[in-house]
Amino acid sequence: AAYFSETLLGDIRAMYALLVVAVLLVSFQEFYLHRRMYEQLWRKSVVDWLAWCAPFGVYFWIYLH
């Protein structure tokens, strides 16, 4: 996804914008939709969010250092 966003959109900032949007959408899904629709437990939402968003954080940390 990082390669395609940079290649297709022509700017490294596009990749970061797409990752931020992905984090926002995953957050909405886990903390609003799943809790409302499926009565998902708060702990499960947090664990799922970390499973999806921690790799994004690691990616940011590696490439911004």
Overview of the molecule:
The chain has 65 residues and is mainly α. The chain contains three helices and no strands. It has helices spanning 2-9, 12-37, 42-64. The longest helix has 26 residues, at 12-37. The chain is elongated and about 40 Å long. The two termini are 20 Å apart.
* Approximate helicity band: over 70%
Average pLDDT, rounded to a whole number, is: 85
Low-confidence stretches: none
How large, in whole angstroms, is the Cα Rg? 14 Å
Structural class: mainly alpha
Order of helices and strands: HHH
Number of strands: 0
What is the straight-line distance between the termini? 20 Å
Contiguous helical run count: 3
Question: How would the blueprint of this fold be written?
Answer:
Elements: H1 2-9, H2 12-37, H3 42-64
Helix pairs in contact: 1-2, 2-3
Question: What are the main properties of this structure?
Answer:
mainly alpha, 65 residues
Q: What's a concise summary of this model?
A:
Helices cover 88% and strands 0% of the residues.
